[in-house]
Design a protein that fits this description.
Length: about 475
């Protein structure tokens, strides 16, 4: 398959080079009744990167799991193998370990790496490694199908979702009031977004609408811009094994960019600045941006009145949020009225594990209701993959509850293949072209030409 031949991500390069690295951890133990040793790793370390995650695994998961196994008559010990490096370095280390037949029994990976690892044979479907216990895990019934999809590749489950997020439209209720718009605004189509932007402009709002565009914002343009809009027009960047080229859905998505930035409803220069996204955050907090498309990180980490990078003391009163509508009702991906995009991490079993069943038990234990509630207490609240847990822990978090209950059931994910980052960059260039004045159809055609060079020719593209 041509796409795979050109998927020269770190995994493919390592596979070709035949490189190896000392294992970051491996299981040991003999036959039935003997001691079993398991290792678990993630890119976290006490006192450093993702310290809370490391503390949770070492101080709660390991002793609780070992005690639970002992109660079942099993002598199981678990060791945490910490890491605290750049994500790409962590990915490279995992790849080297897996290539050399080593590595920890349970490991965390970014959801976007799953397909690349699967294609290289570095991870296997859980049902093949573990048996029917993997498919029969009771947690699946609590995870929305859209979120389960993050852990799937070619129709098979390779991992369990660890957490996720979602994208919405944020808006300033005070500015909306000035423009005569409702505080409970929920657009049902793209035209209603344009109409709201027009009223905000008439009311003197400097930047009525901010939807990320261009290459300076990188993946933020894809995740908080063109991909949600593509989904809203009924498309995905990759469907049924083929990449989406100059499709009508892409032209429609780029057409909305044209209406916003060509119609004076957005700031074209902001999309070109190196720190344009950060500037848009500050402008929103200062009441200069009316509508902004972002993930739940914006609520938790940007305008958070306690420790946000652009604090809004009156966030809870002033900031509203709405679902991202399809272009028209029923015209979105899967025939939906509303859409979103999500990212997230996965946790999986190493195919090299000598004890895959016990490793899966450890994996499942970390995502049990008890474990997730423990992990998310003391200010570490986040959207978990489980609806039963979210209903309890998010009770005092209206935005995160909204993401869990409304957004996750309609969300979509990026294709987990090595070539995606190059495709994403080409999409970002297409939005930059439109913001700069290029007609959407022309920008879509140029995108398809670039796409052919990235994914191995027109045969791998559906228009």
């Amino acid at each position: 398959m041509a796409v795979r031949k050109r998927s020269l991500g770190v995994v493919a390069v390592l596979a070709a080079a035949g490189l190896g690295l000392a294992a970051c951890g491996s299981s040991s133990g003999g036959g039935e009744g003997e001691a079993i040793e398991l290792t678990i790793t993630q890119n976290a370390i006490k006192g450093g990167k993702n310290a809370a995650g490391a503390t949770f695994i070492e101080d709660w998961v390991i002793p609780e799991f070992e005690a639970a196994q002992k109660a079942k008559g099993k002598d199981v010990t678990v060791k945490f193998v910490p890491s605290g490096v750049d994500d790409e370095q962590y990915k490279t280390k995992l790849s080297l370990d897996l290539k050399s037949g080593k590595g920890a029994d349970v490991m965390d990976i970014d959801g976007i790496w799953a397909g690349e690892f699967a294609e290289a044979g570095y991870i296997k479907p859980l049902s093949e490694l573990v048996g029917p216990e993997a498919d029969n895990w009771d947690g699946w019934s609590q995870i929305p199908e859209a979120v389960q999809g993050m852990a799937e590749f070619d129709g098979k489950k390779y991992a369990l979702p660890v957490g996720t997020d979602g994208r919405v439209l944020y808006f300033n209720k005070a500015l909306f009031q000035q423009a005569g718009l409702p505080a409970d605004w929920q657009p049902k189509g793209w035209q209603e977004i344009i109409d709201a932007g027009t009223k905000l402009k008439s009311a003197g709002v400097p930047v009525p609408i901010q939807i990320n565009a261009g290459t300076a914002m990188g993946e933020a343009t894809s995740m908080q811009g063109v991909l949600p809009l593509l989904a809203g027009a009924g498309g995905e960047v990759r469907q049924d094994g083929k990449w989406t080229g100059a499709s009508q859905a892409l032209k429609d998505a780029l057409g909305l960019y044209q209406k916003i930035y060509g119609g004076g409803l957005g700031d074209p220069k902001l999309q070109q600045e190196a720190k344009g996204r950060d500037k848009s955050f500050q402008q929103f907090a200062e009441g200069k941006v009316g509508i902004l498309m972002e993930g739940d990180y914006f609520w938790r980490g940007v305008v958070n009145p306690k420790d946000g990078v652009a604090k809004m003391d009156d966030r809870d009163q002033v900031v509203g949020y709405a679902m991202i509508p399809a272009m028209e009702p029923g015209k979105g991906l899967r025939g939906q009225d509303f859409v979103s995009m999500s990212g997230g991490a996965l946790r999986t079993v190493n195919p090299n594990s000598e004890h895959p069943k016990e490793a899966f038990e450890l994996l499942a234990f970390t995502l049990s209701p008890e474990a997730l509630k423990e992990e998310t207490k003391d200010g570490n609240v986040r959207v978990t993959p489980r609806t039963d847990v979210n209903k309890e822990i998010l009770a005092g978090e209206p935005l995160l509850t909204y993401i869990s209950e409304k957004v996750l059931p309609v969300t979509a994910y990026r294709p987990p293949v090595a070539v995606y980052p190059q495709v994403s960059a080409a999409l970002q260039e297409a939005t930059a072209a439109v913001v700069g004045g290029t007609p959407p159809d022309q920008a879509a055609t140029a995108y398809q030409k670039k796409l052919e060079g990235i994914v191995g020719g027109a045969g791998n593209i559906a228009s």
